[in-house]
Amino acid sequence: MRAATETPQRGPRRQELTFSFGPFRLVPRRQLLLLDGRPVKLGGRAFELLHLLVQRCGDLVSKDELMAATWPGTFLHDSNLKVNMWSLRRSLGDTQIEPVYIATVARRGYKFIADVQTSIAEIEGDLAPAEPVAVSRPPLLRDLVGRESDMADIADLLAQKRHVTLAGPGGVGKTTLAVAAAQAFAPQCRDGTCFVDLTTISDPMLFGAALVTALGIRGNPDNSLTAVLDYLRPRQMLLVLDNCEHVLPAAVIFAGSFIGDTSQSKLLATSREPLGTATEHVVRLGSLPAPRTGEAMTAEQAVRFPAVQLFVRRAAEWSDYQFHDADCEAVASICHSLDGLPLAIELAAAQIGTFSPRDLVTTIDRNLGFRAPGAEGAPPRHETLMATIDWSFRLLSHKEARLFATLSVFSDAFEAEDAAFVAEAAGLDPVDVVTGLGSLVAKSLLSAQVRGASLRYRLLDSTRRYAAARRRADPACGQALRHHALRVLALFEQSEEEWNWREPADWTQRYLGRIADLRAALSWAFGEDGDPVLGIRLTVAGITLWSETSILSEAQARLASALALAKTTQCDDLLKAKLACALGWSLFYARKMSNENEIAWLDAIAFARRAGNLEYQQRALVGFAFYLLQIGHVPRAITYLEEATGLAGRDRDLTATSEADRALAWARAFAGELSKSRPVLDRLAATYSLAEGRSRKDANEVYRFITVRFNLPFVAWMQGQAHYAARLARDAVEAADRSGQWVSQSNALGLAALPVALETGDLAALGTYTERLRRNLERERISRWIPVERYFSACLRDLRGDVKAVEDIRSAIDELIECRFLMRIGSYLSVLARALLRQGRIEEAREAIARAIDHQERQGERWCRSELQRVEASVLFHAGEPLRAEKRLQQALAEARAISAATFELRIATDLAAHWIATGRRLKAVRLLAPIYEEFAEGFETQDLVAASRLLQPLRANG
Q1: In what order do the strands lie in the sheet with 238-242?
Q2: CB burial class (10 A; 0-12, 13-18, 19+) of residue 883?
Q3: What's phi and psi for 795, nearest 5 deg?
Q4: Contact 805, 776 (CB under 8 A)
Q5: Which of 130, 185, 340, 678 has its CA 20 to 30 A from that of 236?
Q6: Which of 659, 634, 695 lies closest to 823, judged by CA?
Q7: Rounded Cα–Cα distance for residues 535 and 566 (Å)
Q8: How far from 125 is each of 47, 166, 251, 490, CA to CA, in Å?
Q9: Is the confidence at residue 2, as pLDDT, over 60?
């Protein structure tokens, strides 16, 4: 990661053919559009359209020519062209009624009308389109019409208030305005904005999961809403909650907690009704102003009214409509009849290709059954909207109507291939779907947005609700939900395959956007009319996504339910093994290690054996062993790991073999078998390098580079290589930082960097690493590391002289024991005993070291036995029992030598030598300590070697 003060390296300059117009430069060979020298993000199709139009500046380019150039040899509805053209115009800022760059020639095509200069210019070689600053981006929305002053007012309100809610009926434009206001307010948000689309969930219980996913909070928070508040507390962010009405109780609870919390973050909500918190500032959104009916005016005057302007824009976009004076009264009447509701106006404008404005007035009056404008008892706006959607639906062909109803199964954006698969259940073929999608987009019943080279479609909340009701009423759509679940299954099974080769960030973006449909498919499959076996397969297919994105809390709940059902269902044993393995790993990062974890791993081993699958046998054995190490069962872990490594002899292609080797070496180190552990860890450290590519293979290489380096430092430090251990730990931390592998970085910090810094007395490194772990827990909340961070932070404060820190050390250790994170707990307790001794609290220190020795013996962690004996000797010295203390030091020295732990041998020899010097045995002290000290080749500024050197210097000076 580049330091903040480092000057960015610029790429080489090249001579490029460039088209310049206004503030823009177009560089065709590099598919690059620059605005005032800065890259503009532009989809591939939109770029091809712009390139062709610019090349033929001033000439009419027909629709057929544009379609042929952009989609060669492909049959598509011309709405694809219109959507991409709209996207292009947005990128150019060319959304006003009178265009600046691209003019529409009615029913014929388009013309680039701005002056274009062609030149050869120097372009820097490393420019790339910049991504917008946002955690979760909103769906692409149409330009804001008639709400500019509202947008400015809301942005001003957000500067003053912490919680603003835009309230109003469906279709009034709350989402569009919220997104525009968020964009206007964004410069005041140091940490960006996050858009949470609540229409993608139907169950209020998923409210917390939706927030966690949108914010990108990874890990396993015990409470999702608490995790969100913790995440927002140190940040200055705008959180946009869109469409709260159907999950209102959950939204109200969250908003109340948010307001009661100390944070600089802001909340902007949209809802059909206010959330009702004490400090909520409600902005009730009204209709777009429209002219009074019967008032004579010109087109120029009428289009100044936002409702008319919106109607004219949409009609022009989809039907090449030209607004004339003669149409003013009719268009004003349409807007007035539709209560100025933007969505209703867009639906009506989409029919201009079929009806003239005058005919549209008659049709609306006849089919919607409205009374004369202004009459008493006029229908409420919501009824107006639903009546307009219903009228638009009834104008569809039979196949379009059935497609529209079927599409309601999608919770979020989808592609044409998804629609074709699901629509097959309703008897529609791919041609019906392609033409139907184009028609529904043109009629504003479906929105479309360009995503790279493809189109993604989306139903707005109101239209989805209406379409779902139509689907439920149509027997021909009875299998739509099953087909949706099957499509989601196919997508996520495909994601498992693509995980191996697709660039990680691209993979995550591609499939995280599908999580709403995965949730919906699972809810149906495990529901009353669903298919449990299909739900089990869906859960297995979702494992990779939950794992890759560290959405562990959701994964735990889904996996536990699926596994419990699989045990009572006729289900393949390999599927059960996969579920149990994934559940075991998700529980591994829970706050507390429970018996549920052990049951999951034992299930995984049993199911994999019954399935005869060596791959999952090995994975389950390794996973269970890691769990056993965490809860302090070292000998048992070694037994399972020996079985796991033995499987490699039966199949050399098992992917978990290196993990099994590493885990076994690590376990043996805990057991004090350093001579068996070190060669394996050295071999693995030499095997994996820091690959610089962005492929999955490279990411896995980096992962293995990191993981061996949070095991090897532990052994190297014990064997007297403090500098080497510190460097290995630092390399692991930095490699994880560069690659964004935050779970691995937390492991490297907690297992290597922090213990080495503490034991070597490097307080500067200890401070840096505790701060990094604390920051890491904000973005990757792994509960197991929270008390570890508290422990090392308290140790740092204690070493810096804070006498109260010892109680925090004790509290962190007690929490670790309560959570059953017992690995190294004996070592932690020995540090507590030393801190207590420095304060003269001898009896408490005696109790702490007794607990430490008890844990060490029961857990089989021989590695620290000699160190605990040394600390026990210190307690005995302070208690006035020198003879017992000396004997215990001699026992400790023999133990350290037996396992070749040079660092512990030095510490013990230094304490024993100091005692001998104090009791007149100077020569004996030199003969003991000097040879041990001279064996060291590095780390001479660490606290252990400094203490030994200080003891030896006067002895040597005096002969």
Answers
A1: 193-197, 238-242, 266-271, 163-167, 281-284
A2: exposed
A3: -60, -40
A4: no
A5: 130
A6: 634
A7: 10
A8: 19, 45, 47, 40
A9: no
Residue type at 42 in one-letter notation: L
Phi and psi at residue 899, to the nearest 5°: -105, 5
- Pairing mode of beta strands 266-271, 32-35: unpaired
Q: Which amino acid is at 602?
A: L
To which CATH superfamily is domain 148-284 assigned?
P-loop containing nucleotide triphosphate hydrolases (3.40.50.300)
- What average pLDDT does the segment 435-460 reach? 82
Q: State the average pLDDT over residues 548-576.
A: 90
270-279, 293-302, 531-540, 846-855: least confident range: 293-302
CA 401, chain centre distance (Å) = 37
Q: What is the per-residue pLDDT for 311?
A: 93
Q: Please say whether the beta carbons of 220 and 586 come within 8 A.
A: yes
Per residue in 180-195, pLDDT (tens digit) is: 999 889 889 888 899 9
Compute φ and ψ for 647, nearest 5 degrees: -65, -25
Torsion of the alpha carbons at 388, 391, 396 and 399, rounded to the nearest 10:
90
Q: Which of 7-16, 573-582, 842-851 bottoms out in mean pLDDT, i.e. has the lowest? A: 7-16
Q: What is the per-residue pLDDT for 124?
A: 54
Q: Which residues of 375-390 are buried (b: 16+ CB within 10 A; e: fewer)?
A: eeeeeebbebbbbbbe
What is d(CA 849, CA 77) in angstroms, rounded to the nearest whole number?
A: 77
**Higher local confidence (pLDDT), 784 or 561:** 561
Q: Are 157 and 164 in contact (CB under 8 A)?
A: yes
Distance CA 888, CA 850 (A): 14
Q: How far apart are CA 193 and CA 186, in angstroms?
A: 7
What backbone torsions phi and psi does residue 23 show, to the nearest 5 degrees? -85, 5
How far is the C-alpha of 846 from the C-alpha of 335, rounded, in Å?
84
Helices (H) and strands (E) in the chain, counts: 44, 17
**What angle (nearest 5°) sits at the alpha carbon of residue 404, between those of residues 403 and 409?**
90
> What confidence score (pLDDT) does residue 379 get?
46
Instruction: Concatenate the DSSP letters of all residues of 287-329 into one string.
Output: PPP-PPTT----HHHHTTSHHHHHHHHHHHHHH-----GGGHH
Q: At what angle are helices 865-878 and 825-838 packed, to 10 degrees? A: 20
Query: Measured between alpha carbons, how far is 446 from 77 in angstroms, rounded to an integer?
Result: 14
- pLDDT recorded at residue 67: 79
Residues 39-97: tens digit of each pLDDT: 776 666 778 888 889 888 888 888 888 877 776 655 566 666 777 777 787 778 776 66
Q: Which residue has the higher pLDDT, 814 or 122?
A: 814
Q: Domain residue spans in the chain?
A: 13-124, 148-284, 299-373
DSSP strand pairing (102-105 vs 38-39): unpaired
CB 401 within 8 A of CB 423: no
**CATH assignment, 13-124:** 1.10.10.10
pTM exceeding 0.70: yes
Sorted by sequence, the CB contacts under 8 Å of residue 398 that are 6+ apart come out as none
Going by pLDDT thresholds of 50, 70 and 90, the confidence category of residue 634 is: very high
Please state, in angstroms and rounded to a whole number, the distance separating the CA atoms of residues 219 and 781: 5
Equal CATH topology for 13-124 and 148-284: no
HSE at residue 255, side-chain half, CA atoms within 13 A, is: 27
Question: Do the beta carbons of residue 45 and residue 85 sit within 8 Å?
Answer: no
Percent of the chain clearing pLDDT 70 (strictly above): 91
Token reading at 522 = 């699972």
How many angstroms separate the CA atoms of 214 and 497, rounded? Answer: 25
CB atoms within 10 A of CB 62: 12
Write the secondary structure of 203-260 as one string of H (helix), E (strand) and C (coil). Answer: CHHHHHHHHHHHHCCEECCCCHHHHHHHHHCCCCCEEEEECCHHHHHHHHHHHHHHHH
pLDDT at 337: 86
Element (H, E) at 82: helix 79-92
Task: Specify the pLDDT at position 503.
Answer: 81
Strands 24-27 and 32-35, how do they pair?
A: antiparallel
